[in-house]
Amino acid sequence: MQPEKLIIFDTTLRDGEQCPGASLNNKEKLEIARQLALLKVDVIEAGFPIASPGDFQSVQQIANEIRGSSIAGLARALEKDISAVAQALEKAESPRIHIFLSTSKLHRDHKLQKGKEEVIQMAVDAVKFGKKFCDDIEFSPEDASRTEPDFLTEVVTAVIDAGATTVNIPDTVGYSVPEQFAELIRSLKETVPNIEKAVISVHCHNDLGMAVANSLAAIKAGARQVECTINGIGERAGNAALEEIVMALKTRNDYFGVQSGIDTPNIMACSRLVSSLTGFFVQRNKAIVGKNAFAHESGVHQDGFLKKKDTYEIMDPTDIGLEMSELVMGKHSGRNALSTKIKAWGFDLTQEELDEVFANFKILADDKKEVFDEDIMALVQKQKFSDESLNTYSLIKIQGSFESGVVPETTVLLKSRDGQEHSATAKGDGPVDSIYNAIDHITGMACKLIDYQVMSKTRGKDAQGEVTVRVRHENREVLGKSTGVNTIETSAHAYVNAVNKLLVKPKAGPVGGGDIQGP
Amino acid sequence: MQPEKLIIFDTTLRDGEQCPGASLNNKEKLEIARQLALLKVDVIEAGFPIASPGDFQSVQQIANEIRGSSIAGLARALEKDISAVAQALEKAESPRIHIFLSTSKLHRDHKLQKGKEEVIQMAVDAVKFGKKFCDDIEFSPEDASRTEPDFLTEVVTAVIDAGATTVNIPDTVGYSVPEQFAELIRSLKETVPNIEKAVISVHCHNDLGMAVANSLAAIKAGARQVECTINGIGERAGNAALEEIVMALKTRNDYFGVQSGIDTPNIMACSRLVSSLTGFFVQRNKAIVGKNAFAHESGVHQDGFLKKKDTYEIMDPTDIGLEMSELVMGKHSGRNALSTKIKAWGFDLTQEELDEVFANFKILADDKKEVFDEDIMALVQKQKFSDESLNTYSLIKIQGSFESGVVPETTVLLKSRDGQEHSATAKGDGPVDSIYNAIDHITGMACKLIDYQVMSKTRGKDAQGEVTVRVRHENREVLGKSTGVNTIETSAHAYVNAVNKLLVKPKAGPVGGGDIQGP
Predict the structure, then answer these.
(1) A253 in contact with B at a CB cutoff of 8 Å?
(2) Does A485 contact B430 at a Cβ distance shorter than 8 Å?
(3) Which residues contact A474 (CB under 8 A, 6 or more apart)?
(4) Residue among A96, A102, A91 nearest A141 (CA)
(5) CA dist list (Å): A195 to A90, A192, B328
(6) DSSP secondary structure, B193-248, as one string
(7) Does A132 touch chain B (CB under 8 A)?
(8) Which of A173, A247, A517 is nearest residue B208 as measured by Cβ atoms?
(9) Residue A15: which of A199, A178, A239, A255 has the closest Cα?
(10) Is A366 touching B (CB cutoff 8 A)?
(11) Which residue, of A134, A507, B228, B379, is most buried by count of CB atoms within 10 Å of its CB?
């Protein structure tokens, strides 16, 4: 017998991206969508089109380009929201409109200030309106796990009658425990008369650390779609982690009897991409994708007792695409080898982009004795996600000195888009601080550095470091990133990157007043 | 009715510390033990005394000093292991000997190469031997969740008969799902005739992301002790996270009806200490202690809809000790204020240590406009955990320059314990690399830099950064750390710290051949 199929609905680009600090530009979102399609995610929730023109454009871009996965857009139960989604998804291969509306008493009273009848009417009207544009309609009663069971049944029945093909039960505040959450799904299957006409979905948050367990318990109880994110990113403590759900179903198929269609060897690439682009680092002991998750394999803990692999290992690291990365290339490696490798990862570079990556590879191979997969990946990312046409400033040169006990001073030379060069010299607490002060002098912007991180991306003394800065200026916060072997120079590039973002991207302001949470 | 009491058994210092990359020195372990006692953990598993002389000494130190919590030591079912634990715990207020032995068929066949009868006999003999030294004996049938149920019942019955007061059921490989794991606990309660004479404990690993859910399901089914770690650190994907279990029980007391005695406002301090000392950073979206877990509170996502706090919040951030840290002190703050603050955090400084911290505070307050709690915490940690008497080298001075396109060169001056000064100049890919090369020249050790991280510890442009380096030399790997406002200088200190550790601390070599895993 074929195991039953589970629909994987990824919301990395919506619920993941909307959490504080994870701002992605549209180019980055598109690249993540490409990786999600390679991962064979069934539905990609690409964004919340009404939230801002930038969001709209991003959903549209993804809908226009991505094939193989359904593309969903989020909408409140309002015609303007639904129209925006429909418009953004016009060219999608398989569009889905995802409508949400709060149903719990707490949310009805304090957020919506509407009664039960009104809420049902809004939901039904919204689904019917959505149906005009597309067949595939998902409805989420927000805060479902805290909604009165009878009323939840009423709402779900009504929206299925109105045409919803998926009903998603969110545990919006991450309050559920598996036994109770499974019971909720079971009871819906019993009490909703038309439940067979829709797929039951769940959307779990991780506030009490149980998003994955709740999702899996719901699957066992009959849910056939789960909403999840790569690395479990998302509002507050995040959403259920895609990789954990998928690997649990695979490893414990004896118990669940349900399989996802995920191409698991793409998990690591996807995890690394999302981690790097959002600046949300994965902790070492994170299940499945943490550095230590398969630490036995790395030889650190091989012990005399270990006679059989299964003694301590329940998963095969190659199943998630984890292999010791090879010493793949050196300065004599050719362009074809590079191109083949990049294609195998699923990146689609233009001729110019490939030229640029190859040129940078040659420079790197001169500097570094050992060039790893991750090094090349870093070069590709640098190329793919920098949108130089939008840059106001580029870094030409830094020059400085440091000496214990002496306040360091650095001179920075930037070039602006109009071709002019600007130089400033500044002191600081350390060389990095002095560079940032010099840049502030040039731009005239008094930025606030919220966070500064350096992580070595590859191995060895000449490893590339990834510098991530969070910079705030007048209530807007952006992420600046750069990768390189020289931490100081890379720190300067990361800050210039942030400044360029501040000068271009007006922070997506929500439409209709106030931030909108979603399920 | 009083809710039932749950015993919290913390194994951060044993299962947490033994995972790859998390090496702690004995001073650091003692400090963590102190924080765990302040957190009101019921049982602190302090280590595995037979594993090495260093481990023995650490367990002994903790047993001698800590009051209020029971102190446990781990032992295989071997007399020499048990004697070592008994000896290390001699001065403990409430000592516990924790004996483990594999019981699953896979482990019996491949790890132990023993039959069922032999395994039971070993277990019973070990418990009886332990009873000679102490009343409080815990027994763990390793890989219990994959052990044949009948045999598990037999083993548990036999060890309780022999005197075990706690029987711990480990899900050693993190293979369980909550429903099945709860069923296992329920069935033990039914099939083990003398089960009322012992406390049932569980010990869950997080390989499939369900350690917390499995632990909670077991509690619901009757377990009255959980083994867990701060931040969920531990082998591979780690153990169940203490903070998630405790806060889930508190938040969902309506469902569980069981309470821990944990002093939850100490959770954040403990989480930060463990994260900083192990170099295992907590991801932003980690439940309870991640930066974003209470992000609504930080004002980032305050929205127009948010009429009532409970709409999206199920926990109060002050319950875990999370408050916006205050602008506490400036350069005019006095010694008493500082001392009071440090005591309130639970640190117990000697007069000399306090003098040193105060002096460093004054230097910092000159540099920095804003001094936060975290800044002072960093100073205290620097003071408490550096054992200067063991240092071979100290950093006197670095001097160098950098310029885009030019290979940087730095001169480093170190002083060795004998008072001699050593200088070397070296080039590198970047200033940091050139510093590390110069240090290698002086020490004559060709170290390999495995990992390099910088994290800003506090806020603002003059924030202190925490540099963590993992350095390998001839198969030994150590963590070097330093904190300061100047990233370059701090990077140099972190590397010198690592070199000093390499020169002193012979890596705890397991006794009896091969690494020993434990439950």
Answers:
(1) no
(2) yes
(3) none
(4) A102
(5) 29, 5, 58
(6) TTGGGSEEEEEEB-TTS-HHHHHHHHHHTT--EEEEBGGG--STT-B-BHHHHHHH
(7) no
(8) A247
(9) A239
(10) no
(11) B228
Q: Which of A193, A192, A199, A103 is CA-nearest to residue A145?
A: A103
> Quick check: A21 contacting B, CB < 8 Å?
yes
CA within 13 Å, CB half, B32: 31
Q: Please report the pLDDT score of residue A299 as a whole number.
A: 32
Q: Alpha carbon of B117 to those of B108, B123, B187: distances in Å?
A: 11, 10, 22
Q: Which two tokens mark A204?
A: 């779990």
Interchain contact, A517 vs B301, CB within 8 Å: yes
Q: Amino acid identity of A449? A: L
pLDDT band per the 50, 70, 90 thresholds, residue A508? very low
pLDDT for the residue A461: 58
> How far is A328 from A305, CA to CA, in rounded Å?
33
Nearest to A280 among B106, B285, B312 (CB): B285
* Confidence tier at A308 by pLDDT (50, 70, 90): low
DSSP secondary structure, B433-468, as one string:
HHHHHHHHHHH----EEEEEEEEE-SSSTT--EEEE
User: Residues A82, A133: contact at Cβ < 8 Å?
Assistant: yes
Instruction: Find out whether B438 and B426 touch, Cβ atoms under 8 Å.
Output: yes
pLDDT attached to residue B386: 64
Give which of B19, B283, B516 to mutate to test A binding, by max A Cβ within 10 Å.
B283
Distance CA B367, CA B276 (A): 23
**What pLDDT is stored for residue B297 in this prediction?**
37
CA distances (Å), A345 to each of A41, A266, A374, A376, B339, in order? 16, 8, 11, 11, 56
- pLDDT tens-digit map of A346-393: 777 888 888 888 888 888 777 666 677 777 877 887 777 666 667 889
Which B positions 177-196 lie with beta carbon below 8 A of chain A? 177-180, 182
B494/A23 Cα distance (integer angstroms): 32
Taking contacts as CB-CB distances below 8 angstroms, the residues of chain A near B484 are 430
The predicted-structure confidence for A29-62, as pLDDT tens digits, reads as follows 999 999 999 999 999 999 999 988 989 999 999 9
Judging contacts by C-beta atoms under 8 Å, the chain B residues touching residue A307 are 110-111
**Complex ipTM value:** 0.86
- The ranges of chain B with pLDDT < 70 are 1-3, 296-311, 323-330, 367-370, 385-389, 458-462, 505-517
From the CB of residue A115, how many other CB atoms can be counted at a distance below 10 Å? Answer: 11
Q: How far apart are CA A451 and CA B465, in angstroms?
A: 10
Distance CA B334, CA B326 (A): 16
pLDDT at B510 (0 to 100): 38
Residues of B in contact with A213 (CB under 8 A): 177-178, 209-210, 212-214
pLDDT at position B327 is 45
Contact with chain A for residue B308, Cβ under 8 A = yes
Task: Name the residue among A296, A448, A461 with its Cβ closest to that of B448.
Answer: A461
The CA-CA-CA angle for residues B56, B58, B62, to 5°, reads 120
